């Protein structure tokens, strides 16, 4: 794998922010509503701290194995492959290739699920916006089929440089939409009301909650590509820490104020809870729909590139028409998947438990454990720098790769603490994957049985706040009791 150096710390920081601020951030209020106002935010912040630590450990392992093998850089699958290939257990080494295939398949599948969730998200948000002007607007599945055409056309570009400026505009629009949501929530959150009922911990929902928040840190696949492209890769831990601190604080603020404002009626995306037929709210939903629309070809590019490489190796197509047909077929399958499963909650929780959690917690922890063991066996301590007599860093003479000394620390106490921490995180990841997947499947079955296409969380409409006041005044003026209507 070739190393492409040139990315500054600031650019890497912006990439981390953008890749982890998507649909997952908008689902945090719903996630917190599952388990309560106290347990939810505390657990969410703790989970994000652990996830950041795992990402740093993965980058550390990538540097270690790059130096060990003598290559400029590695992707996620290559790191897992080399960690198993160099372990002392001969039987375990037989599974190195299978582990690499599993990692690459998981990343590809996760990216495809992201793309499928974009159909659901765009359709349901646009449906609420268009319902003001389209009285008999069709259900969200029909809108997914309609937007399939323009979304598929965006994937036909071969060079993504043409979409770079659209991505930049999308970043600005997304930040604007988030600021507008935070402003609305801070202005409308009933902070003076009794919120004691929101503090109750619902233990049976904890697996589903953990699966949902695992979806929030959705940028695990870009960590090593960023590390490979940075001018100063030793600064990646600091870049990740600052970026995820901002993401965590923003998500926690939206989550807490969103839950206080809308209570247990929260939808998976908080944008669907904003008032209907309100220019401000419709502006937020429109901005988010545009951002996700132009993010689709960027997300689609990664799995399509992997699949096209496999197709080229096996079938050796000779013209561009085959590539376009492959993109058309894959985008069509994603649309069909969204139509068959138009529940954003199900996509978030299933992908969070089955894919995001192993990629974020289990495999980074296991790779770090194997790296620490191999460091200990090799007694790989930093060598003095001949220029100044210090031992601040290693530098591979062939690749020019710099390796900070703290990445190669073998102090027994530090190693033991890191081993225990990573064992705990790996076990936690296994628990979330199994229990979360069971809860997610159960929740999906329940959604199929009870969900209605006219519901607010499927992009259905709701009366305006002003209309409620008018209705209430009308009934009081006629001395007629107000019926028990749930909006």
Explain the overall architecture:
By secondary structure, the protein is mostly helical. It has one domain (9-462): Amino acid/polyamine transporter I, CATH 1.20.1740. It contains 17 helices and 2 strands. It has helices spanning 9-19, 23-26, 28-35, 39-69, 76-85, 90-93, 96-130, 140-154, 164-188, 206-216, 223-229, 236-262, 279-315, 320-340, 344-378, 412-450, 465-477, and strands at residues 393-395, 402-404. The chain has a two-stranded antiparallel sheet with strand order 1-2. The protein starts with 8 loop residues before the first helix and ends in a 10-residue tail after the last helix. The model is unreliable at 380-408 and 463-487 (pLDDT under 50).
Percentage of β-strand residues = under 5%
CATH topology: Amino acid/polyamine transporter I
Would you tell me the overall average pLDDT?
Answer: 82
CATH architecture level-2 label: Up-down Bundle
Strand order of the largest sheet: 1-2
Number of strands: 2
């Amino acid at each position: 794998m070739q190393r492409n150096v040139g990315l500054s710390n600031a650019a890497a920081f912006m990439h981390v922010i953008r890749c982890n601020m998507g649909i997952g951030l908008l689902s945090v209020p719903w996630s917190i509503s599952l388990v309560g106002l106290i347990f939810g935010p505390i657990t969410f912040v703790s989970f994000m701290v652990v996830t950041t630590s795992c990402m740093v450990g993965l980058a550390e392992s990538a540097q270690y194995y790059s130096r060990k093998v003598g290559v400029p850089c590695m992707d996620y699958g290559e790191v897992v492959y080399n960690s198993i290939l160099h372990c002392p257990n001969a039987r375990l080494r037989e599974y190195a290739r299978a582990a690499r295939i599993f990692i690459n398949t998981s990343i590809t599948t996760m990216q495809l699920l992201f793309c499928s969730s974009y159909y659901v998200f765009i359709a349901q948000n646009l449906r609420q916006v268009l319902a003001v002007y389209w009285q008999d607007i069709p259900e969200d599945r029909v809108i997914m089929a309609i937007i399939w055409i323009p979304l598929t056309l965006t994937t036909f570009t071969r060079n993504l440089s043409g979409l770079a400026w659209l991505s930049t505009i999308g970043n600005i629009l997304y930040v604007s939409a988030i600021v507008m949501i935070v402003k609305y929530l801070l202005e409308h959150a009933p902070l003076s009301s009794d919120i004691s009922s929101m503090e109750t911990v619902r233990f049976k929902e904890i697996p589903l909650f953990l699966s949902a928040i695992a979806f929030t840190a959705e940028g695990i696949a870009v960590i090593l590509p960023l590390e490979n492209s940075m001018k100063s890769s030793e600064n990646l831990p600091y870049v990740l820490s600052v970026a995820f601190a901002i993401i965590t604080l923003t998500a926690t603020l939206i989550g807490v104020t969103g839950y206080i404002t809308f209570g247990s009626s929260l939808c998976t995306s908080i944008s669907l809870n904003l008032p209907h037929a309100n220019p401000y709210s419709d502006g937020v939903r429109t901005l988010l729909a545009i951002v996700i629309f132009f993010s689709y070809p960027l997300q689609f590019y990664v799995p399509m590139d992997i699949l096209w490489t496999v197709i080229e190796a096996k079938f050796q197509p000779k013209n561009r028409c085959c590539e376009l047909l492959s993109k058309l077929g894959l985008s069509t399958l994603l649309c069909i998947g969204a139509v068959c499963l138009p529940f954003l909650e199900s996509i978030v929780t299933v992908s969070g438990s089955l894919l995001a959690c192993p990629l974020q917690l289990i495999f980074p922890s296991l790779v770090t454990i194997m790296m620490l063991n191999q460091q200990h066996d090799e007694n790989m301590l930093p060598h003095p720098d001949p220029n100044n007599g210090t031992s601040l860093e290693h530098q591979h003479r062939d690749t020019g790769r710099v390796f900070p000394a703290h990445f190669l620390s073998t102090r027994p106490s530090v190693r033991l603490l890191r081993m225990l921490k990573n064992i705990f995180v790996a076990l936690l990841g296994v628990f979330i994957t199994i229990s979360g997947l069971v809860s997610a499947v159960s929740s999906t079955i329940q959604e199929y049985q009870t969900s209605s296409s006219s519901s607010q969380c499927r992009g259905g409409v709701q009366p305006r706040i002003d209309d409620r006041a008018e209705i209430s005044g009308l009934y009081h003026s006629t001395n007629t009791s107000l019926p028990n209507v749930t909006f």
